[in-house]
Design brief:
- This protein folds into two domains: about 90 residues; about 120 residues, Immunoglobulin-like (Sandwich).
- About 35% of the residues lie in helices and about 40% in strands.
- Helix 1 packs antiparallel against helix 2.
- The two termini are about 25 Å apart.
Length: about 220
């Protein structure tokens, strides 16, 4: 759905929700007052309702009406945040981002990727494989601090021979004091488009679709 159409649709939806809530609140109050008047007309003359009972029922009506208005306000706020998120996401089109993934595209003898570590590591290694799963290149990055890091591939295999441009896969591995540490591969891609659906705002990144905004680790 286009971003401009999304904003118009959101505004229309918010207006409709506000109108519906106002109508519902008025209907609730009308039913309550009719019920209260009927109750007072038919009360026992020897044991009439006291002021405390009437005040209590009025307070209950006020509470229900307040909750209805709060729900409408929260829904309007949620819709507004979604619309703003769509506009922010649209500004990312044409920019490179890093998202969780294990794909890497080699073009003109160059490729780029990233990784994320939950703790510092004595050694981080990037293993690049072809479509058949055969190891093409191992890149030793040495010791790395916790957080995100980047790596670049010159398009050559472990023997120094250039390989064909195309799509490959990679894995990031890390060692700390001789034990394996957690390492997550981050795939690089250009943001091609932005979509808004039932799952919220999603991005098309390179050959990946349905990437949530929360999955974007870095904008380059």
């Amino acid at each position: 759905m286009p971003i401009t159409q999304t904003s118009n649709t959101t505004s229309t939806t918010n207006a409709a929700a506000a109108t519906s809530a106002s109508s519902t609140a008025a209907s609730t109050q009308d039913r309550f007052l009719k019920l209260l008047v009927t109750q007072m007309k038919n009360q026992d003359p020897l044991n009439p309702m006291d002021n405390a009972q009437v005040t209590s029922q009025m307070a209950q009506l006020s509470t229900v009406s307040g909750i209805d208005k709060l729900n409408v306000t929260l829904q309007a706020l949620s819709d507004s945040m979604t619309s703003n998120q769509s506009l922010q996401a649209a500004s990312m089109i044409g920019h490179g981002v890093l998202v969780p993934g294990n794909g890497v595209d080699l073009a003109n003898g160059s490729a780029y990727g990233g990784f994320e570590l939950t703790q510092s590591a004595d050694n981080v290694t990037i293993s690049i494989k072809n479509k058949a799963g055969a190891l093409i290149r191992s890149i030793d990055l040495g010791d790395q601090p916790a957080g995100m890091g980047h790596w670049q591939w010159d398009g050559k295999d472990n023997n120094g021979a250039a390989v064909a441009d195309g799509s490959y896969t990679f894995a990031a591995s890390a060692l700390q004091d001789g034990s394996r540490a957690d390492a997550t591969g981050l795939q690089f891609g250009m943001v091609n488009s932005v979509s808004q659906g039932k799952q919220g705002v999603t991005l098309s990144v390179g050959q990946l679709d349905g990437i949530a905004m929360s999955q974007v680790k870095q904008i380059l």
